[in-house]
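Thread title: Can someone regenerate the structure for this chain?

I was given the following input by a collaborator and told the matching structure tokens would be attached. They weren't. Posting the sequence so someone can regenerate them.
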Amino acid sequence: MSLALTLDFLHDLAAHNHKGWMDENRARYHAARAEYAAFVDELLRLASAELEPGLHGLRATDLMFRINKNDRSQLDPEPYKRHMGAGFKPGGRHAPRAGYFVAVQPGGGTYVGAGRRLPDAAELARIRQEIHYNAPAFHSMRQHPDLLRHFPEGLDTSQTLKTAPKGYNRTDPDVAWLRLKSYFVWRHFPDSEVLRPDFPARVLEAWQAARPLVSFLNEALEES
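Best answer:
Regenerated them for you:
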């Protein structure tokens, strides 16, 4: 299993991120995408057998995100993402639930992640309620040595509310966690590790460490 074509293509795309270059290099794009799809297929095989049975029956195309940017702002001149990514969730990449993610990007931008990133307001309310009602389980899960061994920074705290969310007191002992806008862990890998033949197994190992987090979030999200 190699991702050399993918990394090489994305490296060049970053330097020539416009439609003209993509049109001229369409064959390279398709070759890189096929290589990445094979990587996703291998992860899907491993994950459906050892991590999430609900992935059975899905294909790589159900999990892979488009390389085109759909939400480009006027200040963003680049039409294409600088990575190739996939979301591993029963129901496919856009299913409204927590799941597992991998994105390949050269220059150390490759990341492996898990959880629910930027859920909508209703989902956030359910997650916060679960943390409030079940704080000991939440803290035990987020501080578990296995999780922190694979994701040393723990939950992403880069995006938070400035104050307590509506319905919660600013003096709540868990307010720092209730203020989060995402419930997600991730870590980056250098290109040298991405090119190792055991990289799919290492991705799966990281996801397995995050499985309690994903389960906790999905229990909250599936409550009526």
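Residues 30 and 36 are 10 Å apart (CA to CA).
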